[in-house]
Design goal:
Elements: H1 14-22, E1 28-31, H2 36-44, E2 50-52, H3 54-60, H4 71-85, E3 89-92, H5 100-113, E4 117-121, H6 140-153, E5 158-163, H7 166-184, E6 188-191, H8 197-205, E7 213-215, H9 227-232, E8 237-240, H10 243-262, H11 275-282, H12 284-289
Parallel strand pairs: 1-8, 2-3, 3-4, 4-5, 5-6, 7-8
Length: 307
């Protein structure tokens, strides 16, 4: 239903709804949704929460994931994904866009935009994708101060601390940092770029009682595991951060090649979402029905798939 109708909107704060999902006991599965349309499609597929990746946001703007985008850039994405789907959204907060006061500003801005949860990482700028080499880590105490600042600023936002320490400091270093971040006020821990099942299980065994987030990104250091496998290893949440963007980008690339080659898109019409499917996904007729003066659109059926 349209987000314009107050009765259709969630009553509980987004962070509270996120916590309730975690309390169900089964692993919380969060696919990446890089825009409002992706959010609607993920919701239609049955997901209860979504993830908003810094890498996906940056790439959709034609930029690398090096900490270039701003708090306001991210808030734009949060508003459209949270508003379109009505689902709790976990947002990539990168390094917090500065020091403690900047982190507090980020938390307030993300909550105001509709975020349910955020993760904050312990890299230094210019940060990198967690599955790349030569990441530079912040001092653990400085990161703990950022976590404490975020915890102080939030009203309902669920706070996840990410550590990239496994690659350079090993499992011992990653666990030590994670415990420090929990003591500083984090609700959960995101150990990034673990490389095998043994490492995932060992980390979970050394963080008893702490909710953990697993990252199932493609083309990275983590082998493919299913949500059920992560759950068996002790993880409460799993994300597929950039999958939707990768698929969409590949499809667009094929479209542009076809238009350049054939002088039109006729050869790939059967790969397109139809006009009727688009209107159904975005709820066009529900919006029209809000205003009795708008005549319901009649979908043309003159060509093969609706144009």
């Amino acid at each position: 239903m349209p987000y314009l109708v107050a009765a259709d909107l969630p009553r509980e704060p987004a962070g509270s709804r996120f916590r309730a999902l975690l309390q169900r006991g089964s692993i919380l599965k969060m696919p990446g949704a890089h825009n409002g349309m992706a959010a609607l499609q993920a919701k239609a597929a049955g997901f209860d929460a979504l993830y908003l990746s810094g890498g996906a946001m940056s790439a959709s703007m034609g930029l690398p994931d090096l900490g270039v985008i701003t708090i306001e850039d991210v808030a734009f994405f949060i508003r459209q994904v949270a508003r379109a789907s009505g689902l709790p959204v976990l947002v990539d907060g990168d390094t917090g866009y500065g020091e403690a006061l900047n982190v507090m500003h980020m938390v307030r801005a993300f909550e105001d935009a509709g975020a349910a949860a955020v993760h904050l990482e312990d890299q230094l700028l210019p940060k990198k994708c967690g599955h790349l080499n030569d990441k530079k880590l912040a001092d653990a105490g400085d990161m703990a101060a950022k976590v404490a600042a975020a915890a102080k600023a939030r009203r309902h936002l669920y706070l996840i601390a990410r550590t990239d320490a496994a690659a350079s400091e090993g499992l011992d270093g990653a666990v030590a940092r994670a415990k420090l971040y929990i003591d500083a006020g984090a609700d959960a821990i995101f150990p990034e770029a673990l490389t095998d099942a043994e490492m995932f299980r060992a980390f979970a065994e050394r963080m008893p009682g702490v909710p953990l987030l697993a990252n199932m990104t493609e083309f990275g250091k983590t082998p493919f595991f299913t949500a059920a496998e992560f759950e068996a290893m002790g993880y409460a949440m799993v994300i597929w951060p950039v999958s939707s963007l990768r698929v969409a980008n590949k499809a667009q690339e094929k479209l542009y090649v076809a238009i350049a080659r054939d002088g039109g898109a006729h050869a790939v019409v059967d790969q397109m979402q139809t006009r009727a499917e688009l209107y159904e996904t975005i709820g066009l007729h529900d919006y029209e029905a809000l205003d009795a003066s708008i005549v319901q659109t009649v979908v043309p059926t003159g060509n093969a798939r609706g144009g």
